[in-house]
Amino acid sequence: MSEPLFGTPLEPWWTAQTSVQATLLARPESRRFLEPFIGREHSAAEAARELGVSVERLLYWIKQFRAAGLLLETGQRPRAGRPERQYRAVSSALIVPFALTPFADLEVQMTRQAAPLQRLEARVMARATRDLGLMNRLIYRDASGELHSETALPEGMTWAQVHPEPGGDFAGIYQLDAAAAHEVAALLEALRTRLQASRLSNGEGRPYLVRTVLLQLRQEDLTDIH
Fold it and tell me: Fewest Cβ atoms closer than 10 Å to its Cβ: which of 63, 108, 134, 204?
């Protein structure tokens, strides 16, 4: 198997062997409860604080992960009263064979995996638009023949004036030649490297959602957006 994009794993790769393991790892809504234990040792209380959920809710998932063989109890930490159990994922490097997952095909799996971030993006954008009082949308074709759809700003104001905090969204379909596509890809790679270098630990700074994508389309893909 080729090396992963973002670095060398801490441990040898461990491959899911059952459909239960693959399902728990493939579904974002269950995998997030295992993530604090991947490559790290935590008590239920510590992991619950990191996730922002109740200990009771996390204990339910700990039970599921242990029964599936994905989570190990590594010891107990002494404290006043009962000792605090410590847990760690079976490995910090996990392979999930698609054949063991419950998804009908890769498109369904990718749609499910992308759904939490897409819902978050829509919710935050809707909240920001509502809070700023931007309740109209403009759809128009300009003099060059380009069709646009954008949020209507107050008369005489720019987006930077309306929303001085860092943020915003930008998406579109563009006809590019090979040179331009490679240039954009290099810019996105540089941005990803910059983001990785600037990333703070959980609880530091402020959280921002950042999404980038550059995909070559086929002509038939465009029928889905018209």
Answer: 204
pLDDT in tens, 155-193: 877 877 777 777 777 777 888 999 999 999 999 999 988
In this structure, what are the phi and psi dihedrals at residue 62, rounded to the nearest 5 degrees?
A: -60, -40
pTM: 0.65
Which residue ranges make up each domain of the chain? 14-100, 105-163, 170-226
Q: Are 167 and 209 in contact (CB under 8 A)?
A: no
Angstrom distance (rounded) from CA 136 to CA 188? 31
> What pLDDT, in 10s, does the model give residues 84-126?
999 999 999 999 998 898 888 888 888 888 888 888 888 988 8
